[in-house]
């Protein structure tokens, strides 16, 4: 190296070191995110992750009490001005229209939609009542349709890039024992996302999917009937489930709500500016393999 080259390298290294020490600008500053199912495990973790990047967040849920707790915790951590809690029933068209309207009134638009509100309900096919089938379709399939349609209308009118992330499930790609209604509804969410990606692209609206594998910690759906049903389907006790999911994964890890939130943040942000219509499996390495 001649003297000038050595100087240039040293100067560059010093500049790099300075940059490393500088606080990073918040990557979602000025953006508004609506997160459905915000009172639940994945929804709440997602709100926190997006808030940490500077977004304003509307957390919405049908569970009024759970939402109040989640919102007051988030406000305590991030400030009152950047978080709102709004009620919604994602199966009710008027309720969803009102949610999107009120979100715009609160923060002036919608840049990010995280469609996440959901349930888990399962039974072997010959024991699946029409009511159970319909409930899965209503909340998951129709709920995702209504929420994304109303957000789409607003995003289309805004003259800027926007993004939707659907929290579907590994079970939307592969079959799971005794859960046909849930698996079918989740598969429809994934295909809806692909269709919306195609329709949204001309307006700069990206639509991607995160597929979690079992996220037991923090999740309300893992506390009741679903937990019992899954344990029965795998012929084990409910308290063995977490270990079962860990052991069957390639990485031998359980998936946590924060892992899903990280993937949602990635897909919602400019880091994924050239990704649309895609699926990100967050399953510690399981989805490509098969059913159990
Ligand atoms: P969770 O039960 O903790 O949260 C779901 C939230 O959705 C709840 O707060 C619930 O009140 C809300 N909700 C239910 N019905 C609603 C309705 N009609 N309108 C508005 N809100 C409603 O569960 P979670 O684990 O956080 O699940 C979030 C999403 O992730 C769901 O779509 C679920 O299917 C999906 N998922 C979860 C897992 C898992 O193992 N936890 C795995 C794969 C996919």
TrEMBL record:
Belongs to the short-chain dehydrogenases/reductases (SDR) family. This is Short-chain dehydrogenase. It comes from Thalassospira mesophila. The chain holds residues 409 to 700 of 700 of the full protein.
């Amino acid at each position: 190296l001649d003297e000038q080259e050595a100087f240039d390298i040293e100067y560059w290294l010093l500049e790099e070191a300075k940059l490393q020490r500088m606080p990073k600008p918040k990557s979602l500053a000025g953006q508004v995110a609506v997160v459905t199912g915000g009172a639940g495990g994945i929804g709440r973790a997602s709100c926190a992750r997006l808030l940490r990047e500077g977004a304003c967040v509307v957390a919405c849920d049908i569970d009024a009490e759970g939402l109040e707790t989640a919102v007051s915790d988030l406000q305590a951590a991030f400030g009152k001005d950047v978080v709102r809690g709004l009620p919604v029933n994602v199966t009710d068209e008027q309720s969803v229209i009102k949610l999107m309207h009120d979100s715009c009134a609160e923060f002036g638009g919608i840049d990010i939609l995280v469609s996440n509100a959901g349930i888990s309900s399962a039974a072997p096919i010959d024991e699946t009542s029409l009511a159970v089938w319909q409930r899965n379709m209503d909340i998951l399939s129709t709920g995702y349709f209504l929420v994304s349609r109303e957000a789409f209308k607003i995003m289309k009118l805004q003259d800027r890039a926007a993004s939707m992330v659907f929290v579907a499930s590994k079970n939307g790609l592969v079959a799971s024992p005794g859960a046909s209604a849930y698996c079918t509804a989740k598969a429809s969410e994934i295909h809806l996302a692909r269709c919306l990606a195609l329709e949204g692209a001309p307006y700069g609206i990206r639509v991607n999917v995160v597929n979690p594998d079992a996220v037991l910690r923090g999740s309300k759906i893992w506390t009741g009937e679903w937990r019992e049903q899954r344990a029965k389907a795998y012929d084990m006790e409910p308290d063995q489930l977490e270990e079962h999911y860990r052991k069957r994964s390639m990485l031998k890890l359980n998936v946590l709500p924060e892992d899903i939130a990280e993937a949602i943040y990635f897909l919602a942000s400019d880091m994924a500016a050239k990704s649309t219509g895609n699926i990100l499996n967050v399953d510690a390495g399981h989805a490509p393999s098969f059913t159990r």
